[in-house]
Amino acid sequence: MGVMMKRLLMTAGLLLSSLVVASKGFAEERSFRIATEGSFAPFNFTRSDGTLDGFEVDLTRELCKRMNAKCEIVAQDWDGIIPGLNAKKFDAILAGMSITEEREKVVDFSIPYEQGLLGFATLEGSPLMELAGTGESLNIGTRPEDLEALLEKWKPLLKGKTIGVQGSTIGANFLDKYLADTVEISEYRTTDEHDMDLLNGRVDAIFAAQPNFVATMEKPDFANMKMVGTALRGGVFGTGVGVALRKNEPETKEFFNNAISEAIKDGTVRDLSMKWFKLDLTPSDE
What residues does the Solute-binding protein family 3/N-terminal domain cover (predicted)? Predict the structure, then answer.
């Protein structure tokens, strides 16, 4: 073997060793600070001892294991969660945030980890128990004509009713776009607040994510709460729930996408969904 060839092989070996060391070092040092709301059960909530729990807290731990990352999970009020991400107070958001065109103007998103279903809930005995489509679901993005027909069925029952919804959410956007001429919209800072107003008769119904209703209905005081009407997704509700990330950080996005994809394929997302929602809300194209 010639001297030149030996030198080339030695150089290649040194470069390869450097890459391996750098790769290992990056894997060992990778860390993320991840924000969640901490008041949107069962997606995320704060226990009486101050610890965070819920579907997204469990999922975050699973994703971090797959990314070989050390993760710190912190609570952040909903109104400040996107500004906090872009101010680099944390690196990612897992907080029941739907992927919408409007949000994609200011943040990037991973692939979805939950398909997202929103709808109405009311108290047993309410006239709104008769809302059409209870137990059914509709993708309003692929079937807009069916939404128009559904709204025509809903509006006579909803006319003049007060509907509670968390402010600055896709639920609030939906009510503003499709039902502002039919109902009185009462916006709240958290879903817990509109749940209590439903219980106390200050609103006739609430509009939120169905998994949130599932968690609320497990509380003794809410035994008479019922989900009513068709559950909706797609269209203004976006393409599912994903991890919100800062723009122009493709490496971080790839880490999360790969981890989510693995967790979907091996059934982890389904298992966590069944544990927390009693429903399989694994993303679907249907």
Answer: 31-280
